[in-house]
Amino acid sequence: MKFPKEFLWGGATAANQCEGAWNEDGKGASIQDYMPHGIMQGPSEVIDKHNLKLEGIDLYHHYKEDIALFAEMGFKVYRMSIAWSRIFPNGDDEKPNEKGLEFYDNVFDECKKYGIEPLVTLSHYETPYHLAKKYDGWRSRDLIGFYEKYVRTVFTRYKGKVHYWITFNEINSIWHFPLMGAGILTQKNLLKAQDLYQAAHHELVASALATKIGHEIDSENKIGCMVLGLTSYPRTCNPDDVIATMEESKRGYFFTDIHMRGYYPSYALKMMEKEGVVLDATDEDLEMLKNTCDFLSFSYYMSKCIASNPEQYEKGKGNLTTGVKNPYLQESQWGWQIDPKGLRYLLNTYYDRYQKPLFIVENGLGAKDTLLSEEKDGYWVEDDYRIQYMNDHLAQVSKAIEDDGVEVMGYTSWGCIDLISASTAEMKKRYGFIYVDRNNDGTGTFKRYKKKSFYWYKNVIETNGKIIS
Questions:
Q1: What is the mean predicted confidence (pLDDT) over 194-222?
Q2: 8-462 CATH
Q3: Pick from 421, 447, 420, 423: which is nearest to 434 by CA?
Q4: Hey, where are the domains in the chain?
Q5: How far is CA 70 from CA 9, 65, 104, 118, 135, in A?
Q6: Cα separation of 117 and 10, whole Å?
Q7: Is it the case that residue 129 has pLDDT exceeding 80?
């Protein structure tokens, strides 16, 4: 297996799932602090002390230890996010929180010490709660201005320290989970198509504006968009299933086309016309969208099948969006269908469409890991199932690069250290190379333990993927 010499190997986390310290050093509340059960249930009215995300894995106080472990594995890049409410506690504050800015200064300095490039997501499912409560999140055009102030602040502050940026995490999640994806507190069943398209438009304009500002402040900045990547197959070769798959794919391309091409494609205009949407898009908005991204990044965990008559088939399971079950694939412990070849297919699809660099910024296996009673060969968890999953996916990435000519910048495995699950808000659903002693009931010492996959991934990076089989 071959990977480019400059391939960026690393791992990924999100502030709301790992940092903790939810109200320390001037930080304000985010929507995640009101979501104790993950995306599957609505927000609570008050802060629930049982919300595991309030403490996360306490990376806020362990970041030096954790980054040292990432460096031991040989990370070239660390994808992380800035908590917007740690910089602007309410989101619409006049001045930023200096303590919050200092924290990320320290994190970036620690990365630099080990030669690790930060890849920073500006908004990762954690809109400041005040913006959700007062403005109903991105339904309000006002959020473009608040986001502009935030990104201008961090682009300026971290100039020279950060060169890789992502504007929004899985921006297409707004279709399925508008609270998580756009900070919209109004229940989904009360939202009209007009509301969702308008909120999406505000985020797209803000993303383009951030790209413009980032390039102006530092010409060395590389700024990407990020979507939930899902390969969709027709359930059968019946032309009705093929057409249904084509229609489903358009909803996925809606965000990547605008980010990468700089305008609303004709099918998007038709989609809105059919759904009775009259978009409030100014000439200035449409001009702003021309600020296209330098690269396309995406998460990939599974594929799905699409049928014109889905009620005839068993429904699939997933984190944000599902189709019907694929009879040819195995499943994870959470019912997510495992499809390494779907990753190669998706890489080809995106690259053929845009001819711009791609970055796989989330991929991994959530599983119930068991801590061994005593250390074995330097590790405490025997997670061969995770090693196999990642090996099989990276083999397909190599094929996309070597056999298909796809330009892939790098790969950051999701949850490189165990963290709180976004979909279920559990701790027992673990992705990491590093086990964190924390349990679903909130107990635990927060002690870090290396898994078998820690040494495997270290070897992958050392050999630049040559051990992948």
A1: 98
A2: 3.20.20.80
A3: 447
A4: 8-462
A5: 11, 9, 17, 12, 39
A6: 9
A7: yes
